[in-house]
Each structure stands twice: as structure tokens, then as C-alpha cells.
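Input.
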Amino acid sequence: MSTDRMLTGRREFVRRAAWVGAGAMAVGALPRLSLATPNAAGQATTQRLALVVLRGGMDGLGAAPAVGDPDFAAARGPLAQLQEAALPLEGPFALHPALKQLHALYGQGELAVIHATGLPYKERSHFDAQQVLESGGTQPYQLSTGWLARALQVQGQRGMAISTAVPLVLRGNDEIDTWAPSALPEPSPDLVARLQRLYAGDPALAQALARARGLRQDPQMPVGMDMAAMQGGARNAAVALTRKAGEFLARPGGPQVAVIEMNGWDTHANQAAPNGALANNLRTLDAALAALRETMKGDGSTQDWWARTVVLVVTEFGREVAVNGTLGTDHGSGGVAFALGGAVAGGRVLADWPGLSRADRFEGRDLRITTDLRAVFKGVLHDHLKISQTVLSRDVFPGSTDLRSVSLLRG
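Output.
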């Protein structure tokens, strides 16, 4: 290999690594976290945003059943029968009984439910739908960068990913550092000094190493993860990760944005089982979001960052209304999203409800989409992060001028 190619590869490695020798842990199916740091000028930001992406297509009518819809029981069949009573919301809506802590937040005015929501894309492919969800376009591969990356770039924010790969929603900003939990020991001062001398003649490598040293030397920057918790099952991993996200976010001058990814929502079989994939995933989500709130809320002696936080929970598509032959659901379109946080005007369900009769469904199969998810994103970016509607419609979600933002925040 030529010297030039070796240097280029090394630059890329160091630029993408928050510490040389950090030993990024391969997370596989475990949840993943990405962050966006303060802007390049070092200016502190006070608002916080967490985007939770549920990969696989969460069943919106399973997570937030419309039990009061006159067609619900017939449309859902055995999926309408829950082991415990659904947790009531306003109107015909409820929450799955596994979402007890989210239901408590709803009662406290910190959770809003956005129902019959989804993307312009309706062709039922996980990969294409996730590309649209994260790029902010209207069709797959129309845009190659992420809507959140474009939004942060407007504000001069630098990205940081706590993952082995940066999710698409944060790609498009060249200033992306990566950091991953590691069980390896800290690099020795001698190794650091040798790296400094080695990279002294290369500005790009020297700057990347300096940024990495700054992250590791910050006494408020967590430098390890509870590896036992991360390896102790999906729920422990999710709780550990969201607590870590809360620690990062609840720092003066800390990251403004976190992106948390959770897998396993493709429930084609045995969806109604009390300990099946959907119920267990909902319990995990409930525990993880409660842990995030607890960490950011503080204990009275620390600053309450939860009061200035919005958490958006989204998925690439919903499921078909009817049960399939294996007592699960197949890929659909319309679903549900959650918005929670101290900055959210909660205790309400936002839904232009289309109904569940076969004639009311999209293609006779799916919950019909009446709220575009991009309108939810636009509302939060405008009201919470103070990005102008002009910039949102032109740069962040191109061609969305006619798409009216959904307001979710307290007045």
C-alpha cells in the first residue's frame, strides 16, 4: 500500500474515532446512541432533543390501541384481546398495558401521542422506509444526507456518534467524531506523546487527536459504560444506554441532540403473546424512557434538564390493521409516534382519526396516514431549536413549503 493511501486511511480512522485505541464495542442488535455536540464556536445550547428510532416497524395500533373505535375489535381480531386492560387516554385511544410509566407521564402532561402518522413513502420496505425517515425526503434515496444533520449544520453544530457507525439521520456534517464504550484500559501517556509527535506534521490528524484528548480529559465526559449492564439483555442495555444519553445531555455546554436506535420491532408472529416481542419491546421502551427522564430530571440538587427536553419516538412504518396467519402483523404504513419531555405540551392525543373499517384503510389494509411525520419534525425544530420555517422548508426538508408544522411544545 502506498504511503499516501496509508495516511488517508489513518486520517479517516482518527477523524471518526473519539480516541485511538478506544476499542469500539460491536453493539449488534443492542440499542445504539449518537450525539450532536455544542457548535464549533463552543457556544452553549440550552435546549435538548432526543430522537428515538424504533427499527422494524412498530405496530401503532398495538402500542396505542384505539379501543373506543367501533371497528377496533372486529378489525384487529385476536390482537384486540390484551392480557391486562389498556391504559386510557382521551377519546377512543389508550396505551398498551406495558407502557405504564409513559401513561404516568401522559397524566403529568409530559407525553403527547401522535396517531395515524407516517411517511410519504408507502411501499413497505424496511430499508427504503428507514432511508426516507432519516433523510427527510419523500422517496428513497432522493436525499443522501440526514435531516437532523442538515438542521444542526444550519446552527453550526458538530456531530458525535456513540456507535460503530453514524446513523443516516446525522450524516452530512463532516465534523463527526465517534466514541464507543470500551472494556480496554486507558492509553498510556507515552502512547499519547508518541501519537502527538507522529501526527505533528499532519494538521488533520493533529486536530482530530486534540479533539479526542479534549473529550477524554473532560471530567464531566463519561469514559466508560456499565459493560455488565450492556451485555445483560435488551432491557438492561436500553436502560444503560438511555441513562448514558441523559448524562451526556444533562451537561452545561453538552450535546444538544441524541439519537437512540432500538431494533426488533418487526412483529410478524405471536404479536399478542404477553411475553412476546411486542410486549417485551414496549416494556423495554417504557423502562428506557423513564431512565432517560430520571437522569435528566436530576435529584433537586442538580439542574433540571428534562424541563428543556423534547424526546421524539418514531418508527419507519406501522403495521397492517388485521392479524396475519401467524398471529402477527405485516408491514403497513400508518402508525403512532410519541413526543415526551418537560418542554412538551402533553396529556393529549393529536390525531385526525381516519377510522378502522376496511373502507377507511389505505389500500384496504393499513391505518391511513393523516399526519406527515415531517410536519412533526418541522414543528420541533422550529419551536424548540428555533430554526426558521424558511430554512426548514428549503434546506432541512426540501420542497416542504406547503407542509404545515405540528406544534407540540408548551406555550
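The two ends are 60 Å apart (CA to CA).
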